[in-house]
Specification:
It is a single chain. This protein has a single domain, classed as Rossmann fold (3-Layer(aba) Sandwich), CATH 3.40.50.300. Helix content is 23%, strand content 33%. It has 4 helices and 9 strands. Strands 1-8-7-3-6-5-4 form a 7-stranded mixed β-sheet, with helices on both faces. Strands 2-9 form a two-stranded antiparallel sheet. The chain is globular and about 40 Å long. The relative contact order is 0.27.
Length: 141
């Protein structure tokens, strides 16, 4: 499915439509500034998390969010190359755990090593204020 986003709130709203369950893996791809973290905030908001407490994982690599219903790991691989990710033991342990939802930004370095059933979201520029959001897999409301 493809969507056009004309604002941060559009991107957020589109992400909230995706229904997630434990063990789901969401791969967020796109150039810098296309809205990957905004999309992650929308996903988490749809699961009942406070969007204002969701931050970019770029500087900590992994953020863990937990409420009474869900446990979500938000992972950002932007600064890592394939060799770094392959040796990143915590990443692979989290990936294999079926109790948690995993949102992974910048998965390109190891995408061919990730489960094929992952939901793939690609955000791209359409114009100065527009984004194309392509979603492959997953359940939408």
């Amino acid at each position: 499915m493809k969507f056009i986003s004309r604002s941060v709130s559009d991107t957020f709203r589109i992400a909230r439509k995706i229904r997630l369950k434990p063990a789901d893996i969401i791969l967020l791809k796109g150039e810098l500034g296309t809205g990957k973290t905004t999309f992650a905030k929308g996903l988490l908001s749809g699961l009942g998390f406070d969007k204002n407490k969701v931050v970019s994982s770029s500087f900590v690599l992994i953020s863990h969010y937990k409420n009474s219903r869900y446990s979500v790991f938000h992972i950002d691989l932007y600064r890592l190359n394939k060799k770094d990710v392959v040796g990143f033991t915590d990443f692979w342990e989290i990936l294999e755990d079926k109790k948690h939802i995993k949102i992974i930004e910048w998965p390109q370095a190891v995408e061919n090593m990730l489960p094929k059933k992952a939901v793939k979201v690609t955000l791209s520029y359409k114009g100065p204020k527009e984004r194309v959001i392509a979603i492959k897999g997953g359940n939408l409301n």
